[in-house]
Amino acid sequence: MYQDVILDHYKHPHGRGLRDGDAEVHHVNPTCGDEITLRVRYEGETVADVSYEGQGCSISQASASVLNELLVGKELDEARRIQDAFLELMQSKGQLEPDDAMEEVLEDAVAFAGVSKYPARVKCALLSWMAWKDATAQALGEGAAKERTA
Amino acid sequence: MTDSGRGLPGLLDTEAIRKDFPILDRAVHDGAKLVYLDNAATSQKPRQVLDALSGYYERHNANVHRGVHVLAEEATALYEGARDKVAAFINAPSRDEVVFTKNASESLNLVANMLGWADEPYRVERDTEIVITEMEHHSNIVPWQLLAQRTGAKLKWFGLTDDGRLDLSNIDEVITEKTKVVSFVQVSNILGTVNPVEEIVRRAQDVGALVVVDASQAAPHMALDVQALQADFVAFTGHKMCGPTGIGVLWGRKGLLDDLPPFLGGGEMIETVSMHSSTYAPAPHKFEAGTPPIAQAVGLGAAVDYLSAIGMDRVQAHEHALTEYAVGRLREVPDLRIIGPVTGENRGATISFTLGDIHPHDVGQVLDEQGIAVRVGHHCARPVCLRYGIPATTRASFYLYSSPAEVDALVDGLEQVRNFFG
Q1: In angstroms, what separates the C-alpha of A143 from chain B's closest C-alpha?
Q2: Percent of chain B with pLDDT over 70
Q3: Of A138, B94, B249, B260, whose CB neighbour count within 10 A is largest?
């Protein structure tokens, strides 16, 4: 479960720290006390920045780092595709073997495939991704978000 | 693995005891030997309890207190026999003072609700006070918060000292003439602290307040004598003391149980029922509405027999020796900080700690990979974590079958955790 990629992100997180943003959310995992404060900043359709601060286990912290690395600079549609793919992987209960196509989308995030076998830890991996989704909806507004996916 | 802990004075013959617990033989994760150190969450069950459960269902199953057939009479005798066993185990003056519930949480909620609905002089209402402590399990916080919100009573609590004990320096300001009830834990499920029951009871009695003791982490580990405690109510659960889940106990003084109103209504708890009104059965049945957890009570009776045969004083001596050994060995681990008393004095066999800035989830996961089962998180006592400025702890908790070798396995496991995340 603890792939080197995950430990690398945990020990050397990307983009950690809070910077200016269009919206801020605070998400907690009440069963274990992991928490994250996350801000998003958009430039038009582009994810200009995802900044965050939080405390929690290596899985939740590494996941936030991977999210930052993967999503910053992407167009919103592409970012959503990546989020969907990560969600699918994490909900796979260890049954999904990431193929080349998935690896192309998720890059380092495929290292979390092993985490999906541990129900208690899936929430840790998803904490920052759910926070990003929530922050994005707030930043762009419900209507704006729908328009963009249409 | 070293065997430096062998020969500690007071240790039980764990090799013999472990033969009674089939689960302790199993391996996890492709062959790692199970080292079960999560006993504060739930204990394992000896063969004697498992046999009592299956024997009940295979030979005697029926509903209790109704029906004149053989099985109904046998089931009733077994269920009520379990009540006798529990009464003797806690030195209750009367078997009628033992109310079966589904767990300690239900027992505590039952008391809180009784006091909300009671007449004077017990009634908790506006301008009265409820006292708890900062080291309570959520099950001894939330029912009182609910009661306070519903009645307008004020909820107060004792804080904690830096070394994990109750701060009773302001006891006369916390427990006052307005206090109706003082509810506190005998042994903390997160800090391991054994609290000074007598001092709190004395002050509560001085002001005429009722005393509720949460003995969930005491009943499994030491002789529990409700008369010596001098409390008014004592709550505990079966599954932490070798019994099955789904069975808890509320002991209450006979006079109080007679005076206080029922909470749940239904079958079993009545005397007569008409469409206009009902009268209630005497305690304990007044508080046991509906079909009770019969097999579970029988299982708890078998657990009580099992523990009594070994002797609770010997169980306590074993755990004390093991705790002293564990505290000593854990203090050798670099960056390890024990959250709670750092000596074996007045502490139970539950030890919470942090390990540098490695998150407890990661500690627990790497230990699990080595077959070592600990609990990580806030242990349903989040205010304690807030008090000590930590998000969570790793908790190792021992029982009568735990051995020094398992303490050594934990210490070795923690070394691997440090290497992994260091």
Answers
A1: 37
A2: 99
A3: B249
